């Protein structure tokens, strides 16, 4: 049912689990700053301690082993390794921490998938303009080369940047993520552009200097919902769905996998809206320079973070200069889809299968890793989380159908998340973990959910089947 070398994993991110925000020479990052400002995060929660994985890594490793994972996705804290964001000062304590994590994983026959950037830019670089600065691409490339040089002898799967769409829109247009900027219609496009430039530089660096010896693979993680027209027979809704795809998944995947440039739907829509709002001069959507490394082809696999599905209808623009007006489309929930904890997360396992087929057809049948997928819990704690257990069974069945019936080249599945953790603006009020973390307990005790036990059974079942295949 699943390929022999299928990756069964779970994912985490440094700021969401590590804590130790000032420990052993780590520099501050934009989420440290953001969370320490009043009114930014649910009930003033922050990641100062979080799951305390910086001190309790061995506990995390026990959780990984209990699940029987073959792979574990983690991110590196840029500011823990390079406190000011540059290689002028390397924090050896940070290097030692990640060396231990990687070595411990490999000793347990668990392969690391390592993300270089998961939303936590060093504050020192934000002070120099952050992702809005054109210089950030070169700085990121230097950081990436440092990581490839330091850890690449043991890491075979790399993600350069996690969810550039989220960083660009939520952090620089909506202001609800760090660094908390609200510059509609301009900053998000600039940030997204510089993230693509940074990714491409890092991929080319790996390809030129490390690939032959290290034999790894590099990509960036796209987040995408599955999208359908609200009215399947309405040409306006069908066109709006195409535009919405262009402005979300297409924004970053199209340059990397299709043309080396942004989707024409995106470019033409932004140009048209710019004229309406009286903008003059160059487009608000930047252009790629021919003097820099090419964007096209800079992904060795397609990394997908999928959580939910949406219906799309035409309209919704406010007439002002902003991304919503540019795409002139809005999303709504299908009332038949159950809501999971948070308002934005409708439970639609079949949407993942449809999205995987869309990726195969649109992006030239790439190898796909599902690098995040999960189900949230809010309110009273339910260790026996029956609904979430069913979600994992249903979702993984849809992945199997995508592989068998649609012939999508899916290479792995990573649940979000190994642990209940700091869920950005929602703080600790939303729980995605396969293990519950008691944040009221100084020891941050971990307890496996029923869904964690169910996922472990699924992994054991299919790993066992793969073993049988190998011996036959």
UniProtKB/TrEMBL annotation:
GO molecular function terms noted in the UniProt entry: beta-galactosidase activity; glycosylceramidase activity
Protein family according to the UniProt entry: Belongs to the glycosyl hydrolase 1 family.
Protein name: Cytosolic beta-glucosidase
GO terms classed as biological process: carbohydrate metabolic process; glycosylceramide catabolic process
Coiled-coil regions listed in the entry: none
Key words of the record: Glycosidase, Hydrolase
InterPro entries from the UniProt entry: GH, GH_1_N_CS, Glyco_hydro_1, Glyco_hydro_1_AS
Keyword Zinc: no
GO cellular component terms, A-Z: cytosol; membrane
Active-site residues, as the UniProt record annotates them: 372
Organism: Perca flavescens (American yellow perch)
Keyword Hydrolase: yes
Pfam families: Glyco_hydro_1
